[in-house]
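Structure ticket #2291
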Amino acid sequence: MQKKQQGPNFTIGCDPEFFLRERKTGKLISAIPYITGTKEAPMLLPLGGNIQRDNVSVEIATDPASSKDGFVKCIADTLSEAVKTLPAETEIVAIPSANFDVAELQDPDSQVFGCEPDFNAWKVRQNEMPSAENKTFRSCGAHIHVGTSGKDENSFLLEFEKKLEVVKTMDAIHGVISTVLDNGQEAIDRRQLYGSPGAHRPKDYGVEYRVLSNYWLKSPVTVMLMYHLTEDALRLVRTNEHEKLINDMTEDVIKNIIIKGDTALAQEMIDAHVMKVISESSRYYYNEAVAKIKIDDMNFHAEWGLYKKELTA
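Resolution: structure written out below.
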């Protein structure tokens, strides 16, 4: 009798942020008046997950999933239910950063940035709270939550030092790859304040990786890429292969790629090192994502079937 193949034995979830935009004018507006859910008391959604306001943005959080298909479904369900709670004349948009009209920043909640500190896995210390000189600047992240039951092959996620190793490995893989896929000026501007290398929060179930913007929520293709890259990162740490990857790429190069948005150097590292250690599935979805970007075929709303009556970019 053939032994049943075991699954990946980790859970994955996310809490992306999106800006709210008027559909007719294209103007970005504050989401604060339209969302009752808060960090302390998020609004639960019928198919799972929740919606809340975070500064002027719309934040959703998915339930944890234990498979690639489950992860995609959780995001699809949460997005579809979240937009139903918002005014019909508005739409959510996946933009890494933007400047808002001062009129949209009058509510005291629009001046609240972050509720808890995050930490730097490379320096093993708390990150300073960011402060932008431009007071109209706002940004959106999409953090990846990786967990374990504590009784599987990834139970090392409960160890402090291993959490740091996973985050550093995700920088070398997710962070570097994202520099190529998320290379607009809005992404570069965001990285000056948020998403610095090694940004994370330790969790009792594992770790929250806080480096990426919301770009990877634009399509199920990029979601599946992030799922498989996370599977790769866990495998590399589990087998201690991550040490060679980081040593070969070097800490300084990994961090500089993310901070500066150096796409040329990122592509060099991907070709020379990352492609050699990630799975065939990861390589496939990476190439699919690159192809979509090249032909400008990553329409956030169309990819998820949002606003079906009037699909817009």
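Closing remark: The domain at 11-125+132-303 is CATH 3.30.590 (Creatine Kinase; Chain A, domain 2).
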